[in-house]
Amino acid sequence: MRKSPINYLVTIAAIAVLWIIAAVLVGNYLGDNAALSNTTTEDFGRVYRIVMTIGAVAAVAGLTHWYWHGGKDAAATDLAGARRFWSVWFFILLITSVSCVAGMIVVFRDERFTVVEYLMLFGCASLLTWIPYWICSLAMSPRGVKHAPLGMR
Known about the structure:
By secondary structure, this protein is mainly α. 76% of the residues lie in helices and 0% in strands.
């Protein structure tokens, strides 16, 4: 699974499955169970899915860039540089997950969510951003840089 295009395709499929779980199923659950006073369930679900889609696309972009960069011979010869490259994308996706939650808070600032609902928002944003980046890069990084991700060092 470390060869192109298998790693790209498996990554997209994995994130698509996670998107169905986190954006559709959890989004429907939150829309139905959150105490929304100023927003309709449909509007909440639409905005929630858009925000989670942005996070998922960011993860796909990060992983494809990582696979492309890791497949180059120069990356295999400079493992410290490959680790920095991986870490920068990891940090960007961690910030993206926090930004997804912040975006939801700003858009629905007139609504009152419980702590558990905020944790569900962050958990789903994480499930679509930095978590698949980390797990997919552990399992499917090109051979020359397979020791660069955190957990393989």
